[in-house]
Design goal:
The protein has 910 residues and is mostly beta strands. The chain folds into 5 domains: 61-210, Galactose-binding domain-like (Jelly Rolls), CATH 2.60.120; 228-334, Immunoglobulin-like (Sandwich); 341-395 and 405-415 and 453-641, TIM Barrel (Alpha-Beta Barrel), CATH 3.20.20; 685-749, Immunoglobulins (Immunoglobulin-like, Sandwich), CATH 2.60.40; 752-908, Sandwich (Jelly Rolls), CATH 2.60.120. 13% of the residues lie in helices and 36% in strands. The protein has 11 helices and 51 strands. The chain has an 8-stranded parallel β-barrel, surrounded by 4 helices. It has a 6-stranded antiparallel beta sheet with strand order 4-3-5-10-7-8, with no helix packed on it. Strands 43, 44, 46, 47, 49 and 50 form a 6-stranded antiparallel beta sheet that branches. A hairpin with a 2-residue loop joins strand 31 (628-635) and strand 32 (638-642). Helix 2 (374-387) packs parallel to helix 3, helix 4 runs parallel beside helix 6 and helix 8 (597-612) packs parallel to helix 9 (656-665). It binds (2S,3S,4S,5R)-3,4,5-trihydroxy-6-oxo-oxane-2-carboxylic acid. (2S,3S,4S,5R)-3,4,5-trihydroxy-6-oxo-oxane-2-carboxylic acid binds at residues 200-201, 396, 463-464, 510, 536, 569, 623, 642, 644. (2S,3S,4S,5R)-3,4,5-trihydroxy-6-oxo-oxane-2-carboxylic acid binds next to loops.
């Protein structure tokens, strides 16, 4: 809001009975940074619902755009923008994220200022009307000029804001609207230095990435200038099966210079539009006065909003009338429900405990970035609903109104979020007062703009806000000071509770009680600040084993009695072009490559098992539903992407883990063969797996029956299935609820008669310089998979083992006491073991003694790889002949100092 708006500082009068969870806020003139107040007609969804008295025109077409610095004259009518790019909204200049190991040429990760110009040919405003420009979301700072005059500024990439431009318009002439969108990198001295988020594992896209509209409304109206809110705020102070009390708080504003004698009519409509309750109250507005009043309404025998089972929606319409004339009206959704987040019983909806099944979602698509259409939102919601999701975490910021409307209509329980992510300062200092002010403003906007969504049942006020300081401390060898973000979190928590006492608050913590290196002694603990504890836990990915999750949760449940516990994140990267035969075959490089699809599915399976053993848990959210852009990542098969999504960035590929959850959660019958993208198999013998909610399933290979197996935990496994050389058709069938289910895959297998080549200690296979293909580690029992080095965040240094033309083959190994059961056909074979000594300490290297039995017969005794190769880190091979019947068992459990093997090759004896 501009000077004019700020000048109109006025006192509100608060109508009797306006308690209702909305504290009466003494309204000060909206400051430039915090955008002008707001209204109801909001995003696309409310456009059709706008009253005849309020006209809403979408301004999506006809914009000109240019990135970078611009001449001072850019805001004026004379400026020539004819060479600028023509764009339509939604628009963002940023594009990133691709499935290739290097950045795609069309990537645009520029951060800075982008200029938009629009010529608005506007006939004169009717007398007594105001013109308000509404922005549904601009990344990240927006400045508005109308006809060369600066109207105002808004800081924050996710919320709606409005400016009253009435006094800047030239009636009947072409009006020049200029917007500067600025997504400069937050750093000391930058324009975004004090705008949250300061950091995070996502990219703040620049531009007018949601809609812009022009609202024309009577000078006396439902308030458009209330932190971007709808102006009417609906709450349900009491809900029983017999009766729901509904309270409708209406904020009004008279921007005109005449007093007005008006009436507020509040009406509840059912889903068919029939009025089921209404009330009228007179109201007088002095010139320039803002005011609010509350209308109590009641519903007898209300139909409840029951989550996915029955997301029944009423609507609330408030009309502002002058005599018989409707001068403004706003319609908002009403879902009648009660809910609780209970420390021991978990989440309770309308009195019934309910197990919530969740995933997080970012507003981000391949080739579109954040500039999403209504259809894109609908596609995301349909995919989540298909999987059986019942709760959505809005990662990590306020999502579009279209999306939250979909959540209401689909019965999702939503955790809405303030973008206070990863850090509160650039160093170990206290958060700057300007940053706190900005976070407070964004929180007020979040709550005011979204409070009418029945789906929202939690306000998240922070996510891992101390992790930036923890990483800094780790880099300084643990000597850095703890983060100083606690007071800021406490303040935001209090503000959320004051603004909306009907919903609990949550903080998402990264580290307490985990083996993460970031959970260092002395790190500050923030889990005691909010009502609900949120835990981002990556057992089996960044640290630990998935099964350790249950114990960690039980420990924190005991440490925070009285607070509901949720798992706000868990997950693993999944690359759908990278595959493993055995997810236990080797360590994963969480921040690098590869990320086999089957490993992601395994982490998800095991975490889900562990979560189910924590009955007190209220909710858990998979991180993440969709792959999303993050320029800090080069991992899996991708560049600039976080690949923890269960569905690809373009929404076209549902990874195996998607079907794991669909089988767990969906009511739909599911039968899905896993590993379907691992077409060119490394081994002719495969453990075939399917996800299904049928009790049992049958398998055929090339038309031959393999067998019928039970599907405990909704996972069906046919172990050791033999494939023929070349093409194979693998088909599963099952029955659920009387419905026949089938699924099939086509796999190509190598010829079993030609032997086997196993790369030990590694999750993926490798083809040598001589063209020999080694499969990922498999067929083992015991031992420990190790890698010579995991490399840095993304770049893997070449192995430094010498004496081989394939040093990569010696980058990983299995060590300790272990056996391999190689499923070879009967015959005579030559076995070659590839070994080396990884210990550079001479005494330890000398102590190693490897003994190997092949089907019980010694084939290698007291073997020391360092002395055989002439030193550590030198490749050495040993070969021997065997005759097999019923496979080959290689036993590495004898000897001293632990055996080591990097690879083994078995070929027919010449
Ligand atoms: C987290 C963060 C989230 C990241 C995620 C990850 O804990 O909250 O923003 O994207 O981990 O994938 O590492």
């Amino acid at each position: 809001m501009g000077e004019e708006g700020r000048a109109k500082l006025r006192v509100m009068h608060v109508a009797a009975g306006a308690a209702l969870g909305f504290a009466a806020i003494a309204m000060s003139g909206p400051c430039l940074a915090q955008a002008a107040p707001a209204n109801a007609a909001a995003s696309a969804r409310t456009l059709p619902a706008a009253s005849p008295a309020r006209s809403v025109t979408s301004l999506s077409d006809g914009w000109r755009f240019q990135f970078g610095d611009a001449a001072d004259s850019v805001t004026g009518a004379e400026f020539d923008d004819s060479q600028w790019q023509q764009v339509s909204l939604p628009h963002s200049w940023n594009r990133m994220g691709n499935y290739a190991p290097q950045r795609a040429p069309e990537t645009d990760v520029r951060q800075g200022k982008g200029w938009y110009r629009l010529r608005l040919d506007k006939p004169a405003l009717p007398k007594g009307k105001r013109a308000v420009l509404q922005f549904d979301g601009v990344g990240a700072i927006a400045d508005l000029w109308v006809n060369g005059q600066h109207v105002g500024q808004h800081k924050g990439a996710f919320s709606r804001f409005r400016f009253d431009i009435t006094d800047h318009l030239k009636p009947g002439e072409a009006n020049i609207i200029v917007v500067r969108a600025d997504n400069s990198k937050p750093e000391p001295g930058s324009s975004t230095e004090h705008v949250i988020p300061l950091g995070g594992d996502f990219f703040v896209h620049g531009g007018l990435y949601r809609g812009v509209s022009l609202i024309e409304v009577d000078a006396a109206s439902i308030d458009l200038m209330d932190h971007g809110g709808p102006g009417i705020y609906v709450s349900t102070p009491s809900v029983t099966p017999e009766k729901a009390e509904v309270a409708v708080l209406t904020r009004l504003r008279n921007s005109g210079n005449k007093p007005r004698k008006l009436a507020v009519v509040a009406r509840i409509g059912d889903a068919d539009g029939r009025t089921v309750a209404s009330a009228t109250a007179p109201v007088r507005l002095a010139a320039g006065q803002a005011s609010e009043l509350t209308t109590p309404l009641a519903l007898t025998n209300p139909r409840l909003w029951q989550g996915r089972a029955d997301p029944y929606l009423y609507s609330v319409t408030v009309e502002l009338r002058e005599g018989s004339r409707v001068i403004d009206s706003v319609t908002e959704p009403l879902g009648v429900r009660s809910f609780a987040w209970d420390a021991d019983k978990g989440f309770i909806l309308n009195g019934k405990p309910m197990r919530l099944h969740g995933a997080s979602r970012h507003q981000d698509w391949q080739d579109k970035g954040w500039a999403l259409s209504a259809e894109d939102h609908a596609t995301d919601m349909a995919i989540m609903a298909e999987m059986g999701v019942s709760t959505v975490r809005h990662a990590h910021y306020q999502h579009a109104q279209e999306w939250s409307d979909l959540a209401d209509r689909n019965g999702m329980v939503v955790k809405a979020e303030l973008p206070f992510v990863h850090q509160s300062a650039f160093d170990e200092s206290l958060p700057a007062p300007e940053l706190v002010a900005n976070a407070r403003a964004q929180l007020l906007e979040l709550i005011r703009q979204n409070t009418n969504h029945p789906s929202i049942m939690l306000w998240s006020v922070g996510n891992e806000i101390d992790i930036g300081a923890a990483i800094m401390a780790l880099m300084k060898g643990g000597k850095g000071a703890p983060a100083k973000s606690r007071d800021m979190l406490v303040e935001l928590n209090a503000l959320a509770k004051q603004e909306d006492p009907s919903r609990p608050t949550l903080y998402a913590d990264c580290c307490e009680g985990t083996p993460s290196p970031l959970a260092r002694p002395g790190a500050q603990v923030l889990n005691d600040v909010t009502d609900v504890v949120g835990l981002n836990r990556y057992f089996g990915w960044y640290y630990g084993q998935p099964q350790d999750l249950t114990r960690a949760l039980t420990g924190l449940h005991a440490r925070y009695p009285g607070r509901a516990i949720t798992v706000t994140e868990y997950g693993a990267g999944g690359a759908f072009t990278q595959h493993t035969d055995n997810p236990l075959g080797g360590p994963v490089n969480a921040n690098g490559r590869p990320h086999p699809e089957e490993f992601q599915a395994w982490v998800q399976e095991e975490n889900w098992k562990a979560l189910q053993k924590a009955p007190f848990l209220s909710a858990s959210w998979i991180w993440n539903m969709f792959d999303f852009a993050s320029t800090s990542r080069e991992e899996g098969e991708a560049y600039d992407l976080n690949d923890k999504g269960l569905v690809s960035y373009d929404r076209k590929t549902r990874k195996d883990a998607f079907y794991f959850y669909k089988a767990q959660w969906s009511e739909e019958p599911v039968l899905y063969l896993t590993g379907r993208r691992y077409v060119d198999r490394a081994y002719p013998v495969v453990d075939v797996r399917a996800y299904s909610n049928a009790p049992r399933a049958s398998l055929t290979v090339n038309g031959q029956a393999v067998g019928t197996v039970d599907c405990p935990d909704r996972i069906c496994v046919w172990p050791g299935v033999r494939l023929r050389a070349g093409d194979n058709r693998v088909a599963a069938s099952a029955e659920r609820d009387g419905k026949a289910l089938t699924d099939s895959v086509n796999w190509t297998a190598p010829d079993a008669a030609k032997g086997l080549h196993v790369r030990a200690g590694h999750l993926t296979g490798l083809t040598t310089s001589a063209g020999l293909r080694f499969g990922s580690d498999n067929f083992f029992t015991g031992g420990k998979a190790s890698e010579l080095r995991m490399g840095g965040r993304t770049k893997v240094a070449p192995s430094n083992v010498t004496g081989t033309s394939d040093p990569e083959l010696y980058a990983s190994y299995r060590q300790g006491a272990f056996t391999y059961d190689l499923p070879l056909p009967d015959g005579r074979w030559t076995v070659t073991l590839h070994m080396f000594e990884p210990e550079t300490d001479a005494a330890r290297a000398a102590a190693r003694s490897i003994t190997v039995l092949a089907n019980g017969k010694p084939v290698l005794s007291d073997f020391n790889p360092a002395s055989a190769a002439g030193g550590s880190l030198k490749a050495v091979t040993r070969s021997f002949a065997v005759t097999t019947r019923d496979g080959l068992k290689l036993d590495f459990s004898g000897g001293g100092g632990g055996a080591i093997v990097s690879a083994m090759s078995v070929v027919p004896a010449g």
